[in-house]
Design goal:
The protein is elongated, with a radius of gyration of 34 Å. Strands 2, 3, 4, 5, 8 and 9 form a six-stranded mixed sheet that branches. Strands 1-11-10-6-7 form a five-stranded antiparallel sheet. 55% of the residues lie in helices and 15% in strands. It is an alpha+beta fold and 447 residues long. The chain contains 15 helices and eleven strands. Helix 6 crosses helix 7 (135-141). The N and C termini lie far apart (73 Å).
C-alpha cells in the first residue's frame, strides 16, 4: 500500500524535482512487500497450484531486484562521484539478478548468488554512512534536506540489515518482523525526505511563476498601449508571446500628423534573456527618434548602441517610415524577413527586401534603404519569424502558402479586422502543433 501511494504521488508530481526518487521508492516498497506474500506459508497453502508456482518465480526475481531498485533510489538522492558509484553498483546488482534468476529458471535453485547480493547490499549500507555522519560530505554529494529523519530511519534499518547479513552465514536468522520494521522505518524516512524535496521544488516553481507573471506585465508595459492616430493611415498590431515573456518588440515613432515610423525587432532565443534585451531596445529607440525619417541611419545608430550589450545574442529588425501626405515609404532591415506590400491597383502582394546584417554580428553595419511609393488602398505588413514560419501537419510554412491569399481575399477588411483574422488563421494552420516562436506583426493601411 505504501508503494502504491508513492507511485500515485510520483505520477501527480511527475514534473517536480524528486518525483523519480518517489517513484523508485514506490517500486522498491512494492517489490519488498511482495516478498512477504511469496514467503507466507498460510497464503501459499490456500492458493491454487499455478499461483504457488508463480510465487516461486516472483520470490526468485524480487530477491535480487529489491537491491537493484534500492540502489537506483539511493542514486537519485546523491550527486557527483557517489552517484556514479551507486549507478555502477546498480548495474552489478542487475547482472547478479539476471544470472541468479536465469539459474533459477534452469535448476530451480533460488540462492545461487544470494551471498554476493547480500555482500553488495552491505557495501551500499556502509557507503551511506558518510552522508549521515559528515554534514560536509552530505552537502557536497547529497540532495537530501533533512539528515535527522534519515539518520533515525537508517539506524533502525542499518543495524537490523547488518545483523541479518552477518548472522545468516552462521545459520542464524532473525524473525521476519524485525526485517519488516527496519525496512518500514527506512522507507518512511526516505519518503519523507524525498517528499520534502518535491514540495520545496514546487514552492520554487510557484515563486518563479509569480515572478514571470510580473515580468510579463512589465514587458507589456514597454510596448505601445495604443496605435497612433496618423491621418490617411489605419494601424493594427498583434503581439502573441510563445512563453510568459518574449524576445519580440515593436514601437511606433510618431513624427507628426502625417508621418510615422514603425519598428519591429526579434531577439534570438526565447524567455527571460530575450525579454531583457527587448527592453533594452525600448530604451535605445528613445535616443534615435531624431532619425525617424531615415531608416538606414536609425538602424545604424541602434546597431552601435545595442551590439556591445548583446553578449553573443542577435537581433533582427525592420523599420518602415511612412509619409502619408506624400504617399511615400522608406524601408530598411537588419537580417529580417521581407516587408509585405499589398498593391490594390495591381491586386498583388510584393515582398520587399532591403537587408543589412543582424545586430550583434561582426559584419559592417550598412543598411540599404528602399523607397516605396504607395496609393490609397495599399497595405504594408511588418512581422517577425513567428508570423510566417508556423508549419502545418505536412510541414508547409504559413507565409509560403496562405499570407498572400489572405491579403488578396480580404482587401476590403479594415486593418483591425484583418489582424484578428490573420492570427486565427495562423492558429488554425498550425493546429495540433505547439507555438514555436513569438508572433508579432503590424498592419498599416493607406486610406
Amino acid at each position: 500500500m505504501f508503494g502504491l501511494v508513492a507511485l500515485v504521488i510520483a505520477t501527480i508530481r511527475h514534473r517536480a524535482s524528486g518525483a523519480r526518487a518517489i517513484f523508485l521508492i514506490g517500486v522498491w516498497a512494492i517489490f519488498y512487500g511482495s516478498q512477504a506474500f511469496n514467503y507466507n506459508s498460510l497464503l501459499l497453502g490456500l492458493e491454487p497450484h499455478w499461483m504457488v508456482v508463480s510465487a516461486q518465480y516472483m520470490r526468485a526475481a524480487t530477491t535480487y531486484l529489491v537491491l537493484v531498485v534500492g540502489l537506483l533510489t539511493f542514486r537519485e538522492l546523491t550527486r557527483g562521484f557517489v552517484r556514479r558509484i551507486l549507478g555502477a553498483m546498480a548495474i552489478l546488482a542487475a547482472i547478479l539478478a539476471v544470472l541468479g534468476f536465469g539459474r533459477f529458471m534452469l535448476t530451480r535453485q533460488e540462492n545461487w548468488l544470494l551471498i554476493y547480493n547480500e555482500l553488495l547490499a552491505t557495501l551500499s549500507l556502509l557507503l551511506w554512512l558518510p552522508f549521515l555522519t559528515s554534514p560536509k560530505f552530505a552537502s557536497k554529494y547529497s540532495v537530501l534536506q533533512d539528515r535527522g529523519v534519515l539518520l533515525l530511519g537508517y539506524t533502525i534499518f542499518g543495524v537490523e540489515a547488518l545483523l541479518v547479513n552477518l548472522l545468516r552465514p552462521f545459520g542464524y536468522q532473525l524473525p521476519r518482523v524485525f526485517d519488516d520494521l527496519g525496512f518500514g522505518a527506512f522507507i518512511l524516512a526516505i519518503g519523507y525526505v524525498a517528499m520534502k524535496g518535491v514540495y520545496a521544488s514546487e514552492r520554487r516553481l510557484a515563486s518563479l511563476d509569480s515572478e514571470l507573471a510580473v515580468a510579463r506585465q512589465l514587458q507589456f508595459s514597454i510596448l505601445p498601449a495604443t496605435t497612433p492616430a496618423i491621418r490617411n493611415l489605419r494601424i493594427a498590431a498583434v503581439y502573441e508571446p510563445m512563453t510568459a515573456v518574449a524576445g519580440d518588440f515593436y514601437e511606433f515613432l510618431v513624427i507628426d500628423d502625417y508621418r510615422a515610423g514603425f519598428l519591429v525587432a526579434d531577439v534570438s532565443g526565447h524567455g527571460v534573456p530575450a525579454a531583457l534585451i527587448a527592453s533594452m531596445i525600448k530604451v535605445a529607440v528613445q535616443s534615435v527618434i531624431a532619425d525617424a525619417a531615415d531608416p538606414s541611419k536609425l538602424l545604424s545608430r541602434l546597431e552601435v548602441i545595442l551590439s556591445s550589450q548583446l553578449r553573443g545574442q542577435f537581433i533582427s529588425a525592420a523599420y518602415l517610415y511612412v509619409d502619408a501626405e506624400k504617399h511615400l515609404a522608406r524601408y530598411s532591415a537588419a537580417g529580417h524577413p521581407p516587408l509585405l506590400c499589398w498593391c490594390a491597383a495591381c491586386n498583388a502582394t510584393a515582398h520587399v527586401e532591403s537587408n543589412g546584417p543582424l545586430f550583434g554580428t561582426p559584419c559592417e553595419p550598412i543598411f540599404p534603404t528602399r523607397e516605396i511609393p504607395f496609393a490609397s488602398g495599399d497595405r504594408f505588413v511588418l512581422y517577425t519569424d513567428g508570423f510566417g514560419e508556423p508549419e502545418n501537419m505536412v510541414g508547409e510554412a504559413f507565409a509560403d502558402r496562405r499570407v498572400a491569399q489572405l491579403l488578396h481575399d480580404n482587401s476590403s477588411r479594415s486593418a483591425a479586422e484583418l489582424s484578428l483574422l490573420l492570427l486565427s488563421e495562423i492558429r488554425a494552420w498550425a493546429a495540433g502543433i505547439p507555438q514555436q516562436d513569438d508572433i508579432t506583426f503590424l498592419l498599416i493601411d493607406a486610406l
